[in-house]
Amino acid sequence: MAVTLPARRAGAMSPRAVARSGGLHPVGVFFLLAGAFLPIMDFFITNVALPSIDTSLHASASELELVIAGYGVAYAALLVLGGRLGDRLGRRHVFLAALVGFVVASGLCGFAPTVGVLIAARIVQGATAALLIPQVLATFHHTLEHDRKARALALYGATSGIAAVVGQLVGGLLVSADIAGASWRPIFLVNVPIGLIVLVVAARIVPHTRSDHPVGIDLPGTVLFAATLTALLVPLTEGHSLGWPWWTWTMIAVAVVLGAITFVIERRAERRGEIPLLPPSLLRLPSMSRGLVMVLAFSIGFGAFMFVFALTIQDGLHADALHGGLAILPMAALFFLGSVFAPRFISRFGRGALSAGAIIQLAGLAALVVVVVRGWPHVSLWDMAPPLALAGGGQSMLFAGLFRSVLADVPTHLGGIGSGVLITLQQSGLALGVAVLGTVYLAQAQHNTAHAFATVEVAQMAIIALLAIGVAALPRFTTPSANTPTADA
Predict the structure, then answer these.
(1) In whole angstroms, how large is the CA radius of gyration of the chain?
(2) Which are the contacts of 389, defined by CB distance < 8 A and separation ≥ 6?
(3) At residue 489, does pLDDT exceed 70?
(4) In the list 118, 258, 330, 404, which could disulfide-bond 153, CB 3.0-4.6 Å?
(5) How many whole angstroms separate alpha carbon 52 and alpha carbon 171?
(6) Which of 138, 80, 478 is nearest to 287 (CA)?
C-alpha cells in the first residue's frame, strides 16, 4: 500500500523525517530527478565528442557507432527488468546500488585506454542506468498522490528532455575546454562527483519502498525481450556505417521472429496466472496502450532531431564542439522554462495543453527548416535561435504531458513494471530515430546537407502533427483517485 503524506505536512518536516515516515519530501523528488538526469544526459553527451574520441583512440566508424549503440541497447533491453527488481528488492536499495555502478562505469569510460574498453564500459553504464531509472518513477508512483504525483511525473518528463538537450551543450563545452589536456574524457568523469553527491544525500532522504505484491523475474521473458531489442537496434545502428552487410538484414529478420515468440510466451504466462515481464493486460490499459504509442513516436522524432542537428552544425556548418553545443542553448532554455509551467497548464487545460504544445513545436521546427534551407551555407547560430526556442517551449509541454498520462491508470503495485515499460519505449524510440531517420540524413548529406536536414525535419513535423491530433485519444485528466493524478478535464 502506498504511503503518502499531505503536501503541507511533508513540507513542514525535514527530508529525513519524511523519509522515515515512508513519504517523499520535495527535496527527495529533486535528488531522485538528479539521479535520473545523469544517465539520460549520457545518451546524448557523446554526440559532440565523437570526433575527439576518434582522434584520441583511433576508432573506426563502426566502433564509434558502438560507443553510442552499446549504451543504448543495454539501457533499453534491461529497463523493464530494472523496474521489476525495484518492485521486488526495494526501490531505494536498487537505486543506490545502480547509482554506484553507474559512477564506477563512468570513471572507467573517462580513463579508457582503448576504444574496446570504452565500448565495454559504456555497455556497463547502460546496464546500470537501466536499473536506476525505473526506481525514480516507481518511487513517485508509490509515495505521492494527486497534484504532487502529477507534478513529479511532469517534472520527470521535463528532466528527460532537458537532459537530452543539456547533454550536447555540456559535451561541447567540456570537449572544447580540453581540461588538463583530457579532451573528451571529462564528459564521463563529470558524472563521478555529481553521482557521489546524489548517492550520499539520496541514501538519507529517499524512503524505502517496494511492491506489496512482488513478482518473479520472468527469466524467459527477460532473455527474449533483451534478445529482440538487441537484434533490432544493433543492425539499425551499425548498418549504414558498415554498408548494410548480410548479417544486419538477418538480425532484423530474427528480431521479428523473436518479438512474435516473446508475445506468445508472455501471453501464455499471464493466462497461467503469472505476471510476465510485459503483462499484456497492463499494455491494454487505455493510458498505456495509447500513451506508449505516442511516447514512441515522439521519441523517434526527438532522437533523430538531436542527432542530425549536431551533425548539421559541426559537419555542415563546420562549427567546433563548443559552438555545436551552444547552438542548442535556445531550445534548452525554453524547454526548461516551459517545463516549470507545464504541470500547471496541463492541470488547468488537460489534453488541450498537449495539443497547444505540439502546434507550437511544429511552428518552431517549420521556421527552423526555412531558416536553414534559405540561408545555407551561411546560416548563423543567431538565425536559428528564435525557431529553436519556439520548438523547445512547445515540446516541453508535450513531453511532460505524455509522461504524465501514460502512468495514469497503472496500479500502484505495478508501478515499477509500468515505469520500466514507459522508459523502454522512450529509449527504443530515441535509438530508432537515430538509426532510421539518421540513416536517411547520412545518405542525403553526402550531396546536400541542408536538404538532408529538411527531409528529416519534415518527417519529425509529420509525427508532431499526428500527435497534436492524437492527444484527443488519451484518457482525460480527471478527478483524483488512489492511482490517478489530479487535473481538470
Answers:
(1) 21
(2) 330, 331, 333, 334, 364
(3) no
(4) 404
(5) 11
(6) 478
Which one-letter amino acid corresponds to residue 366?
A: A
Q: Measure the CA–CA gap between 367 and 386, rounded to whole angstroms.
A: 9
Superfamily (CATH) of domain 26-208+217-473: MFS general substrate transporter like domains (1.20.1250.20)
Residue 122 to residues 42, 129, 152, 165, 444, Cα–Cα distance (Å): 10, 10, 29, 20, 29
Start-to-end CA span in the chain (Å):
27
Model confidence at 485, pLDDT cuts 50, 70, 90, reads: very low
pLDDT tens digits, 231-265:
887 887 777 777 788 999 999 999 999 999 998 99
What DSSP character marks residue 327?
A: T
* Cell (9 digits) for 89: 528488492
Which set of grid coordinates corresponds to residue 98? Answer: 545502480
Instruction: Please give the Cα distance from 198 to 200 (Å, whole number).
Output: 6
Cis ω before 377 (30° cut-off from 0): yes
52 vs 46: CA distance, rounded Å: 10
The model carries a pTM of: 0.77
Report the 10 Å Cβ neighbour count for 409.
Answer: 18
Q: How many residues does the structure list for the chain?
A: 489
Task: Check whether 479 has a pLDDT greater than 60.
Answer: no
In the chain, the amino acid numbered 170 is V
